[in-house]
Each structure stands twice: as C-alpha cells, then as structure tokens.
C-alpha cells in the first residue's frame, strides 16, 4: 500500500510510516537539508557511501521504487546521520525527527548546517552505545532554555575552548547563582560533545561518583 503526500503527512509529519515518506522527510528537514535528489546522489559518491543515480533517488523518494537494498538503506542512514533502524522502526523515526526539529531551531542562533549534522551524528552514536533518546532530547531542551535566557552558541563554544585557568579566573566574584549557571553551561557543552559531566582525575575511576 502506498501513502500519499497530502494532509496525512502534514498532520503526522514526525511519524511517517513508509521508507519513501521518511526519506522525503530527511531530504527536506535534516540539518543539511533541504537537499535535492541530484545533490544526495553527488554527496553520497563524494563521501564514499554506496552511490545511486539521481533518477533512482527520485524513485525511492516518491515511492516508485519501494524495495531498496540494505546497502542503499544503510548508506542513506549514514549520509543523514540517523540510526540504521530509522527506516523500519517507528519509535526510532519519531525520536530522531524530534531531535532534528530541535536541532534546526538552533540555526537562527548561528549554528551551521554541518555543525548540526555532526551533532545529530553524535546523538546517533550515543544511542547506539545505550544512551536513551529521552536523555538526549533533554540535553537539547536544556540548551534551548539556556539560549532563551540569552546564552548564545558562541558563548558555549568559547567556554568549551577556553583554558581551565582562564575560566576559573573569570568565575572570581560571581555569586552562587552565577557560578551555578556557569557550571551548568560547561556541563551542557560536555554532554553535547559526548563527554562525562566531569573529567576524570588521576585518583578517580570511571565508576566513581
């Protein structure tokens, strides 16, 4: 059974069922999107992923070809930085599309398409290692709250790149509330980079709290 691209998709855009609908969603909404069929075909080849023609890409995207090979499905998942089961698992697709929506919201704050694409790839990797999607979405929501409070992506990046001593010096004189906010920002950057909340010290093992 084929699916139309009308009102049903608009009402339930995050939970499309068919391969064609999910592929079309990624082409339109992934952090690097929107991308055309020829662009996807060209970029797949450039990135060393299983290549396909722009005609076949069009057929997959509109449902004319409804039996893609596993090689092409895995290659497209890697290209869009989504889990391999994105195509077959409704829950995975819903969660990932929700992440994509949140990530795209940071474009207006200056985040680039490639930065957001790499972040989605990082989230996909963390999910494969057992991090729950709920925890990752909470990270995005926390970052959104920081941004709505006036903390820019630039500020977070400067905190991430600055030397520890410099950060400590800048913290001198801050109130308890200010120190708490600064610590929360640093923890957020570390989580977004896939790092533990606090770096290990020489006398501390990964299992210690």
Q: What are its keywords?
A:
mainly alpha, 209 residues, disordered C terminus, single chain, 11 helices
Question: Can you characterise this structure?
Answer:
The chain is an all-alpha fold and 209 residues long. Helix content is 61%, strand content 0%. The protein is built from 11 helices and no strands. Helix 6 packs antiparallel against helix 7. The longest helix is centred in the last third of the chain and has 17 residues, at 176-192.
Write the layout of secondary structure elements.
Elements: H1 7-11, H2 19-29, H3 37-46, H4 54-62, H5 70-80, H6 90-104, H7 113-128, H8 133-148, H9 153-161, H10 164-171, H11 176-192
Helix pairs in contact: 3-4, 6-7, 6-8, 8-11, 9-11
Structural class: mainly alpha
Q: What is Rg? A: 20 Å
Largest sheet: none
DSSP strand (E) fraction? under 5%
**Cα shape:** elongated
What's the pLDDT, averaged over the residues? 78
Distance between the termini: 53 Å
Q: Compute the number of strand runs.
A: 0
Element-by-element helix/strand order: HHHHHHHHHHH
Point out poorly predicted stretches. 1-15, 200-209
Number of separate helices: 11
Measured as a percent range, the helix fraction is 55-70%
């Amino acid at each position: 059974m084929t699916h139309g691209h009308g009102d049903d998709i608009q009402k339930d855009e995050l939970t499309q069922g068919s391969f064609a609908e999910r592929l079309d969603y990624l082409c339109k909404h992934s952090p690097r999107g929107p991308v055309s069929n020829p662009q996807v075909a060209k970029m797949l080849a450039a990135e060393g992923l299983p290549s396909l023609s722009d005609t076949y890409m069009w057929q997959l995207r509109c449902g004319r070809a409804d039996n893609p090979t596993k090689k092409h499905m895995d290659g497209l998942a890697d290209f869009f930085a989504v889990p391999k089961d994105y195509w077959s698992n409704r829950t995975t697709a819903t969660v990932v599309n929700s992440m994509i929506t949140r990530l795209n919201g940071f474009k207006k704050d200056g985040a680039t398409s490639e930065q957001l694409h790499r972040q989605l790839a990082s989230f996909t990797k963390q999910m494969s290692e057992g991090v729950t999607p709920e925890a990752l979405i909470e990270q995005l929501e926390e970052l959104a709250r920081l941004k709505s409070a006036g903390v820019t992506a630039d500020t977070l990046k400067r905190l991430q790149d600055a030397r520890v001593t410099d950060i400590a010096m800048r913290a001198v004189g801050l109130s308890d509330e200010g120190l708490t906010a600064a610590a929360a920002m640093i923890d957020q950057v570390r989580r977004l980079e896939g790092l533990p909340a606090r770096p290990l010290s020489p006398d501390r093992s990964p299992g210690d709290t």
